[in-house]
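Review box. Two proteins, two foldings.
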Amino acid sequence: MAKRSDKHNDSSQMQGILQPDVTDRLEKEEKHKQVAAEYDATDIAERASSCSSKSPCAGVERGREGKRDEQVWKQREEATDSCCLLEDLRRLPPSRVTPERLSFDVTHTVLVDVGVFNSGGGVQAQQGRDMWHSNFVKLPCSPSSLMTKTILKIHTSEVKRWEVISKALERLAKKRTVTVDNVEEAIMEYNPKYKGQWSFDALSSFVKCIPEAENYSPTLFPKIAALASRLHEHVKKGIPLLQRGRTASITLSQVQISCLLANAFYCTFPHRNTSSPGAEYHNYPTINFNSLFGQWSERKKEKLRAIMHYFKTVTDDNSKPRGLVTFERHCLKDTDTPKWRSCKEKMPKLHVTSDGLIETEGTSMLQVDFACNLIGGGVLSSGLVQEEILFLMNPELIVSRLFTEKLGDNECLIIKGSQQFSRYSGFSDSFEWAGPHEDHLTRAKRDECGRLHRQILAIDALRFRHRREQYSMLHVTRELNKAFCGFKAYGQSDPDIATGKWGCGAFNGDPQLKAVIQLMAAAVAKKGMAFFTFGDEMFKESLQQMYRLLAAQGITVGKLYGLLEDYCAIKQTADVELFQFIRNNLSKSLL
């Protein structure tokens, strides 16, 4: 490992860089540029990034004579970009002053028996009572869930819906093999309203075209049905909704999550099949899998490969996971919202790289999900960008759609302890399921609450129809508050942040503006940040240069906020990039 250098983020040392004499300052900057140029000339043939079909930014060419010694490489990188090493950033597990034991309170609902768990007795469902209430998930096994059943095509009567569901599921579970027609028939028994409306062509085409080595669906369908039918055994108390405007959290076992997702697969959740404005759950994402089963496409095929692999793993007694996962909704109070114009914090630690991925190199950091305000986005339909891919590789995240209301402007969702089950290659139309993933975190010691050392932060950026709309301080401040809400420390020793081009791409955000916003939010949250450019070498270098300038001049968040105000004003009439605007203005301030 390269020797750690602290000089780039020590404010007292940084003050030593600042000289009252302008000429001296400019000479130092010019000297720094010359040093960087020397390194660039030496390494120019050896530093081209190579992006493979397996993932963006697969690695860096180390020259014709083989891979360069990692220590020398990192030392040169540090010397030229003034950013910290990835190893300098804080990861889980943190050292705790007081170990955090599993506990519950008025804002934290735990669905497992806390006493049994803390005494080493393993994971058992917490006893409780059904809650058929607007503040809770309406479970399919609830005695209050009713449906109308036609008898002999003449008479109708109201029956408990779970009786119909459990009979249909148990019938499937008893079979050695189950066809897609059998699956459709069972689902339509307790969703008769949608007969003729729901299509299963994607699921049917998937089973027909899947490679022979993977064609385990006919024997897996019964196992998923058996798991779904045991919902009343695994979930014995009401699951509260994580509602808008309230900070609250839910802890579930991975077995409970698999059972809930098995029910989503068989479309058992009541009142969740429409998102029309007047619907009870119109402000929540969909959860039943019917939208995944229809309208065949290559995207649907690859999604189903990931989903079926997840169920293959969790229905096998030898591989099913046995830990806990916590879902935390945080709502930023007005009293905690920073006064951005007055913030005195300077730039945080920053590592910028065009290599690697948030979910791999950012493991055990706070990994940013470039989220939709309806969590999970189009994971159960046709969407297939960063958030959807994340949810497919970590299907336990999908269960958050069951109870998480649409995120507000001052809210985020943090998921602690989810497991990665799959690998992938490509993005969007080029996305492919690349096989099982052996999550090395499962081999490490879990935290005191039985969770893997993985934290995923869902923050939704604004989506701009026209790119120019984002150059408004109203929108900039909203994005600052959203990022700060997610980055803010909510524990004793939270990890640093792994992020990238949040809110760009389909959301039409300006990468330079979004990078500066995240830097400012991280600074106020007192968190370091790893920024992954996903193969964009030019943006990596421009961000490094901008960071070096901001850090060397000791620019505060408040000063930067003022520059953004000026930039938004001038952007209405002039076409100038943010980084160039900042450089020009900081140069003028030296004269």
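Next protein.
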Amino acid sequence: MASSPTSFSSVIFVGVLGFAFCSHVPHLTDTKYSKQGDIILGGLLNLHIFDAKRECVQLDSVSVLHRVEAMVFTIEEINQRDDILRGVDIGYEIYDSCVSEDVTLAATLALLQNITKNALCEAVGGGGDEDRQKLKGVIGPRRSSVSAAVSRVFGLHHMPQITYMATSDELSDKSAFPFYLRAVPPDRLQVSVMIDIVRHFNWSYISLVNSDGSYGKYGANEIKRQAAMYGICIAAAEEVSRFATEEQLDYIVKKLLEYKNAKAVIIFSVVYMANRVFDAVRRANATDSFIWIGSDGVYDLAAYGNGEVGKGGFFVEQFNTESIPYENYFETIKPESSENPWLIEYWERYRNCSDCQEPDHGFSAYMGISAVIDAVYVYGYALEAMRVDLCGTSPDACDEFYEADGQILLPYLRNASFEGTRGPVQFDENGDLLGKYVVKNLQYVDGEYQRVVVAIWDSLAEGEKLDMDNGKVMWGVAVDEDIGKPKSICSEPCPGGHIVIPHGDVCCWDCFQCRNNEIPVLNNTKCQPCQLFHWPNEALDECDSIPPTYIRWSDPMAITLVVIAFAGLVMSILTVLGYVVHRNKPLIKASSRELSFIMLFGVTFSFIMVFNFIAKPTLATCVVVRLGLMLCFTMTYAPMLTKVVRIYRIFTAGKKSTKRPGMTGPMSQIVITSVIVSVQVFISGIWAIIVPPDATLEMPIETEKRVELSCNIGADEVSTSVAYNLLLIVLCCFFAFKARRVPDNYNESRFIALSVYTTLVVWLAFIPTYSTVKDSSFKVTVLSFATLLNAFVTLVCLYVPKLYAVHFVNDENARIRFVSQVNSTATERT
């Protein structure tokens, strides 16, 4: 496979420098901490800060010197053990990387001089006669971008490299960095911690700041990827150059402040650039505007005077434990007895001063030395495994062991497995270590800024990996009183029954209220009407069936109707009894006794029908209502029409002759009435066949929560029956008017006229009211009152006078009066 331009340029670069080394050019670095041994482990550990002037200045922090001493301590601890590399003295050669690619590359090439067999010179055509390769591996450097640069150089010479802090995901690419391993988890896990913090507090709108270089760039890319996975929007994403001016940093802070709802800001940066950003925040007087979530590169804010800016923020750190043996060792170190060239500088700054304090017990847990110790032990166990395989049962190292290069050692490194200072140490296929993180909350306690552990994140945990103690968290921004924590969202969640209308980011939207009968669907992006007879529930997320509405027995109106109908029913029964008792009285016999009984049945049936109107609509009640609704009226008007026509015919014929007209006998009148009633029965029967009776649900207005249970009485059916009964009423009115002058004691044409006139008025009021009313319960009420009025008018106008006359008028007087009225009527008409 063809070499990439990068690899080719690296070969040329290393070749030129290698030629210089083989020609005995002086070293590029003069300061180192070293000890000779049978084999050597190299160290590229940053101690000083590389400033904007590209110079290594003062010590970075107290922890950097501890990492150097931790490497030395661990190597000496292995040298004293009998179970690991017995008889092999491990040396070391440690350089200050100064967190600079230039300085680290120079130190890298200095380390590569320890590759014997003159491998470096052989790469450019030189030669040599040494047989042993003393340099077996390198610890460091710390920064990801620097590690990426020197790893390519080490890879060209098959030199293994284990970092103690570089976490960029770029370095997981084994095709580009085959000899690179690390004793810390990669950034993708650290990003998972930060995203889990955001998710834990239900934040969905954040900003992002990252430093330039491999560490910041790859961390930012992973943050964007994971944020998209969980629906988290990034309002502003800004990259900070290590050489950025104050004006550029102020502009970045201004951009962050433009998105005022994005309170949470992830800062994935090295400490130097992070503190420059915090300086800009202080200049903008925005110290209480953000909730910072810092990567493991953001530390020691208080030392830079930025504790107030970071207060209340969350800062991710690798999980470390204390090492009591190391602490005991460190307490024995003195500048006059140590070969460490940087110890005097450390002593002068951190120990040899009037206001300095001795380190507290357990300080090693806060210095990040656990990864250094584990990295050295990875080499120790891997070299021991390789020695056993190459040298067999011999307790000492053989020549093959010393001659083995990194390509032989690499599989042993990847397969190393042991219990380290922080737990199990084992690499995955990318040479990455899975592990834990701690999340610390920067708080102002007892007059000083402290990082308080508030959460543990374990990549090997089942279920939720983040274990957060919310009670320990102290906030540096305003807290929402309703939820007890700050918000970092673009738009408030829409209330129930609303859909979201996105604008800009998917996390930003407006709320639009659905109609009363609609619910939000498709992730609250569309309003969907509920099915007929259904309505949104209280949560407005599902449609429930609507309980049907119908008039109930307990309703005040129903009680009123029942009382009136019952009173009418009692009156009609008493009337029937009165007619039965006095059926042979001349007055009763003269008023068409048989027709009167049919009318009384119709009136009684009307009162009974009111109870069916009020009853809950079912198949049985609807059959009765559909067939009996107009039948009770017809059974009242049919005999009434027959009676009034009979009266009219008799007295009209009496003017011309004494012969009685035909079809005026009782049986004839019953037959005629039955024919008239049969027409209504036929009409109702036909409609029952066309539209079978049943109880149906109706929703008069789809946007109102009302479903009515009623009998399926169609408008056409009502119109047909009403038209027929109106015809009967009109005919009754006509013939009653024509027979208005007949005697009024035995033939009640005037009472019939009064009854039908009143009934006509009732019907003229009933028909438009019933047709325009939409509420089925009100329709039942209107229909019931119309039926009751019709029955009471008939009862009062036609039957009460007869019963009164039967009880209070003498039959002989009535007969004399009847004869005189007949004679008077005959005289007038002649």
